[in-house]
Amino acid sequence: MTRPEDGITETELDAFLTGQLEAGRRFAVADHLARHPDLAARAMSDLRLREGLHLVLSQVDGPPPPALRQAADTLARGLVRPPRWPLRAAAAAALIALGWASEALWSGFQEMRTMAELRPLAETALDARDAVELRRSLALTTVQVDAAQIAERLGLDLPTLPTEWQVRDVQVVATPQAPGLALVIDTPDMGEVMLLSFLQNDGGRISPLRAFDHRGSAVAVFEHGPTAFVLLDASAGVRAEVSREAERLLSRMN
Amino acid sequence: MSGAARLDVTAHLEALRRYARVLTRNGSEADDLVQGALLRALEKRASFRDGADLRVWLMSILHNHHIDRLRSTSAATARETAWADLAPGFAPPAGEHAVRLEQLRAAVLTLPEDQREALHLVAIEGLSVAEAADVLSVPPGTVMSRVGRARAALRRWEDGGTARLSSIRLVGGADDAT
């Protein structure tokens, strides 16, 4: 491939044409082409070829079949990058340690192990609430979004909300497992609550419905199929009330 | 807030479908190949390193899936020779140069597989030589020489009109004479 008499190689010329040659050699090749019209003409011919290739190989003959899109979505859910766990894990561990004694008052040892799994979910819901609040505080324009459509894209199974519940805000939020959907809802009985839903990768171990207090919020965690739900009442909510409303949502699953 | 972030696989779907068409030279077979590669990627997701290039990782899985499928089917050889009867799955060229462009595409798809793979990854998908080498599991020098041979063959094709490429597959540095 080397053309010693020219001082440049075929490989360098290719790299020049594909923009992959470092600056110093680019000048050397361009200089050489300027002094060798035959090679310059060939380089232009290569450029023509390059443009032709783009024209004939860039566009496929139709949109992807639905099954392909679905497979891409499924893979995207499986490839969720891990969250910044060290900090969150430390925070969760501290909270669990602090809350251990009071927790033991209303749940037996057997259930405490389950609580260790539940509390990170409550933390996730609080994170989601923070994300929604942050966006609200920045007064960013809320795009009119269709919660059902987003839920479908995320593979989430949402309950039919009671008609008197008013969805005030919808936001896609990060969760440790997969992108989640946070709905901020005005309810007649509890005031403003947040319903977080996300797909579980671990098959789900939080059944049956559990309600507990977490950092001043009343939290209910329940699941339906692969979808996990966290209902959060951050305004000094009453655990029994959140639990009852979560039961109601669970009974309204499609 | 936790930092979990969804990776946008859909954004690379078109690139995967294009490369699959260059590999299989058949539209519907190419989409089947992509579908299988996405499933395989899901199974192998633990091998995806944080910070790695998602496109290169997906292309590499697609490429290996194609090789495995070729190995597992005895029809591969027959298909290699009969591909011209099939629909390659690209949008038909338009405009005054449509006929010539159609011939150019046929010429590219007639190149030996190793050359058209390397050419496509570098010239169409814009992968660096190092990235293409990752996808193809060959040294970077091999990628460059395959691209060079592909270009030389197509240059010959352009010089010789619609002459069949099969007779000029083996070309080297001497081909740069005009």
Automatic annotation (TrEMBL), chain A:
Protein origin, superkingdom: Bacteria
Name by which UniProt lists this protein: Anti-sigma factor RsiW
Organism (species): Roseicyclus mahoneyensis
From TrEMBL, chain B:
Signal peptide: none
All copies of domain PhyR sigma2, residue ranges: 9-63
Annotated RNA polymerase sigma factor 70 region 4 type domain residues: 102-154
Pfam families reported for this sequence: PhyR_sigma2 (PF22029), Sigma70_r4_2 (PF08281)
Alphabetical UniProt keywords: Sigma factor, Transcription, Transcription regulation
Entry keyword Transcription regulation: yes
GO function term, MF aspect, one: sigma factor activity
Database matches in SUPFAM superfamilies: Sigma2 domain of RNA polymerase sigma factors (SSF88946), Sigma3 and sigma4 domains of RNA polymerase sigma factors (SSF88659)
Matching CDD domains: Sigma70_r4
Family to which this protein belongs: Belongs to the sigma-70 factor family. ECF subfamily.
NCBIfam families given in the database record: PRK12511.1 (NF009164), sigma70-ECF (TIGR02937)
Protein name per its UniProtKB record: RNA polymerase sigma-70 factor (ECF subfamily)
Organism ancestry: Bacteria, Pseudomonadati, Pseudomonadota, Alphaproteobacteria, Rhodobacterales
